[in-house]
Amino acid sequence: METQVAPGDQLKNRFRGFYPVIVDVETAGLCSQTDALLEIGAYFVRMTPTGTLETEEHFHAHVKPFEGANLDKEALEFNGIDPFNPLRGAIDEKEAISSFFKAVDKKRKKAGCIRAVMVAHNAMFDFGFINAAARRSRITKSPFHPFTAFDTATLAGFVYGQTVLAKACAAAGVEYSTSEAHGALYDSKVEAELFCRMVNRYRVLGGWPLRYE
Length: 213
What we know:
The protein is of the alpha/beta class. The protein has a domain at 7-149: 2-Layer Sandwich (Nucleotidyltransferase, domain 5). It has seven helices and five strands, in the order H-E-E-E-H-H-E-H-E-H-H-H. Helix 3 (93-111) crosses helix 4 (123-136) and helix 6 (165-172) crosses helix 7. It is globular. The two termini are 32 Å apart. The model has no long low-confidence stretch (mean pLDDT 94).
């Protein structure tokens, strides 16, 4: 017999109809308007029949610098990316964003949510690069809420007293490898695990589902 999930434990009801997608990007600088987007990593989530949030499938793409993009030497040394290495298997920015949005929308619809919401560590950075790439690609329909995002740095600061990703993961008991860090897929994975732990912790402590007297 299939377990019935209480309304408060359905993913479509947990975040006001929003479907959270945990995203990380690697770039060739700090300015989304001028610097190249080089890598997108994202993890999708699902709600178990017992109301626990957990990660499932992921999306990953290496991205070719757009024409005229700035490639900051310090940024590339920091993330270790050679934008023109053919072994990256990089695809055009438009193809990457289009494929990403389609994958997000498919998951959003499956969960019965009205909109996706981006979750990221220092979210406005990732949000800005994804939106700038979409504008350059003339992709006008995004599955993400246009101005709302969930910031795991802020949430971790509230829950664990830590805002640096490595320290927040340590506080949450999430394994974090400095040797694998600064890769979009790996970082989105640990950020997703951190996000799920915070959401689940709040539920265990009795904060969700909301109960009114």
